[in-house]
Design a protein that fits this description.
Helix content is about 25%, strand content about 30%. The protein has about 325 residues and is α+β, with helices and mostly antiparallel strands. The protein folds into two domains: about 5-120, Response regulator (Rossmann fold), CATH 3.40.50; about 135-175 and about 190-330, no CATH class.
C-alpha cells in the first residue's frame, strides 16, 4: 500500500465526500490494524483546516469481538467525544463497525453539527478518483428513479435465487457516496458505497434466496463458504439450508419473533465497492436481504433484537415486470 496513494484517497474522502470545513472538529476512532489509514485521514483533515483528534479504541473493539454479546455500549468518554465533534469517523475492524452502526442513534444525537461515518477498509488500494464519485451518483439516480413508487420486485440469480416481494408505498433509504450531514440513521459508510434500501411489506416476500456473498450472521463478518438458501413464505424465513454458515443464520432466526422477517431489500449501485468486505452490499450487481428489525427504513414496522444481512451476487432485478439489472449489469 503506497502512503502517497493512501493520502490522495484520504484527500478525496475529506474534501469531496465529507466536505470538511475550516475550524470543524473531527474525531477519528481507530484500532491498531487501521492506524495508518486514520493518520492519513487526519493529515488530510488538518490540511483542510480542521481540529482533529485520533482515538485508539483497540481495547474496546477487541472486547466486543471476543464477547458472546452481539454488541456492547462504548465507553462514556468516547460517546462524549463523538457527541462533541462535528464529524466522527470509525476507521476500525469492519465487524465492529457494522455491529455498532445500527445502534449509534441509541447513544448519540445525530444532527447537522454531529455526523457519524465509517471508512471502508483498504484506503490506498481502492483506485478511487473523483470521477468515480460522480459516476456512482449518476447510477444512484437511475436506480432510485426506476424503483421508487413501484410495487412488485423480483430478484433472480445464477445460484438459484428466485424471490418476489412488495415495496408498495415504501420509500428508499439511500446510502449515497456523498452523504448529507446529520441525516444518516447509522454510521454512514464512505466512500465506496452506493446502496438503495427498501423495507418490504412485511408479509410479502415469497420464494428462494441463495446467499453467496457476505454474511453478517457469523461472529466475524465473512463470505459464506458455500451458498446458504433461505425459503421465505409470507415474509418470513421458514427454512434455512446449506453448509456450516447456515447454522449461523438458523441461530439468528431463533432470536425472537421478529428475527425471521425479511425486513430489508438492498440494491447495490457502485462499481468501486469491494467484494469480500461489507461494502459488497453497495456493489452494482448485488442485492442483500436483511433479517430482523427494519424500523430505521421508511415504513418499516418489524421489531427485533437483531438486523443481519446476506448478499446475493450477479443478480437480475425486475420491477413491476421491467428489467433494471440483468446478470449484474445495469441495463437502463
Amino acid at each position: 500500500m503506497s502512503y502517497f496513494r493512501t493520502f490522495e484517497e484520504a484527500r478525496i474522502v475529506i474534501n469531496d465526500i465529507l466536505k470538511i470545513k475550516n475550524n470543524e472538529t473531527v474525531a477519528l476512532m481507530t484500532d491498531s490494524l487501521r492506524r495508518r489509514e486514520a493518520e492519513a485521514l487526519a493529515l488530510a483533515a488538518y490540511e483542510a483546516g480542521a481540529e482533529v483528534v485520533i482515538v485508539d479504541i483497540s481495547d474496546h473493539v477487541g472486547k466486543m469481538l471476543a464477547s458472546d454479546k452481539f454488541w456492547s455500549m462504548p465507553p462514556r468518554h468516547l460517546i462524549a467525544t463523538i457527541q462533541n465533534s462535528n464529524v466522527s469517523v470509525f476507521i476500525v475492524d469492519q465487524t465492529y463497525a457494522f455491529r455498532i452502526s445500527h445502534r449509534i442513534r441509541s447513544f448519540v444525537q445525530i444532527n447537522e453539527t454531529c455526523s457519524t461515518y465509517k471508512l471502508d477498509p483498504g484506503m490506498g488500494t481502492w483506485g478511487l478518483i473523483r470521477e468515480d464519485v460522480n459516476r456512482i451518483m449518476e447510477v444512484s439516480n437511475k436506480i432510485m428513479a426506476a424503483v421508487n413508487g413501484h410495487d412488485e420486485v423480483r430478484v433472480t440469480s445464477e445460484k438459484g435465487t428466485d424471490v418476489k416481494l412488495s415495496i408498495r408505498e415504501r420509500e428508499c433509504l439511500a446510502v449515497l457516496p456523498v452523504p448529507e450531514r446529520g441525516k444518516s440513521l447509522f454510521l454512514h459508510p464512505v466512500p465506496l458505497w452506493g446502496e438503495y434500501n427498501w423495507a418490504p411489506i412485511e408479509d410479502s416476500t415469497e420464494g428462494r434466496i441463495v446467499i453467496d456473498g457476505i454474511t453478517e450472521a457469523t461472529p466475524i463478518l465473512d463470505v459464506v463458504h458455500e451458498p446458504v438458501e433461505w425459503i421465505a413464505k409470507k415474509g418470513r424465513v421458514v427454512e434455512v439450508r446449506g453448509g456450516e454458515d447456515a447454522d449461523d443464520f438458523r441461530r439468528v432466526v431463533r432470536t425472537d419473533e421478529g428475527a425471521p422477517v425479511i425486513g430489508e431489500l438492498g440494491v447495490g449501485g457502485s462499481h468501486k465497492a469491494m467484494f469480500g468486505t461489507e461494502s459488497e452490499k453497495g456493489r452494482l450487481g448485488t442485492v442483500h436481504f436483511g433479517l430482523g428489525d427494519n424500523r430505521v427504513y421508511p415504513g418499516g414496522r418489524n421489531t427485533s433484537q437483531v438486523h443481519v444481512d446476506g448478499t446475493v451476487r450477479r443478480i437480475t432485478l425486475q420491477v413491476d415486470g421491467r428489467t433494471i439489472i440483468e446478470k449484474g449489469v445495469l441495463i437502463i
